[in-house]
C-alpha cells in the first residue's frame, strides 16, 4: 500500500490544489485500495473572521447559535485539508468523481479558539457497491494531548470497482437518513443568498465552479450554481429552535444541490434523542439536506 505523509504549516493553497485536480490519476488498484496517507496542518486555528462568516450565514449571534457553530467550524475551516488529500497527485481517483454524501461531526471537549492546534486527516475505510465506492475520511483536531473534535466525511465515487466489499470501520453517519415529515409546517423560510461565493470557497478550500458560476453550472446540467453544503448547514443551525444543552454530535446527509436564489423551507422534529431537521428547496419533493443534532 502506498504511504504518503505531508505536513503544512500554513493553509493549503487552493489554486495549487486545483492544478493537481487536472493531473492524471494513477487509477484504482483493488489490491491497494485507498492509500495510507496522512495530511497534517500544524498551527491550524479557527479565526474570528471565519466565525463571523459563519454567524452571518446563520443569521444569529446569540450564545446558543455560537455554541452550535463551534461544532461546525472545524469542518468548515479545515475542509481544505481534506481537499488537499483528495487532490494529491498520488491519490488513485480524481476529485471530480467524488461526491460528498454525509458528515458526522463529534465534539468531545472544549475547543480552544485561541490555541494553535494540529488538524490531521486520513482515509479510514471504504465500501464497494454495485455502482460506486464510498470513502470515509477522518479529520481530528488535536490541542495539546487532547482531541476535542473530530469528523468523518463520506464521499462517493461513481463507477464499478473491484476488490473486497469493505475495508476498515464504518463509523460515519448511517447510509440512510432518518425520516422527517414533509407535511410539518416550516419553522422558517428564506431565500438562499448568492453573495460571498468566493469567501466561502476561500473558507472551505472548495473552488468547484458549480458553487461559483451560474453559467458553468447550467452548462453542466444544473439549474444554477449551488451553495457549499457547509454554508447551508450553518444556515440550518441558525434557524433551529433553542436547546437546553450544547450539541455534541451533528450528522448531515447531503441529498441535492441548494441553488442560489431559491426559497428554502426548514422543518424540524425533536425528541429525547435530539433534533431531526430537513431543508426543502422550492419545487423539490425531497429534502436537499437532512440533519440530526444530538
From TrEMBL:
Residues 176-185 have a biased composition (Pro residues). Residues 167-186 are annotated as: Disordered. The lineage of its organism: Bacteria, Pseudomonadati, Pseudomonadota, Alphaproteobacteria, Hyphomicrobiales. InterPro entries: HotDog_dom_sf (IPR029069). This is Acyl dehydratase. It comes from the Bacteria.
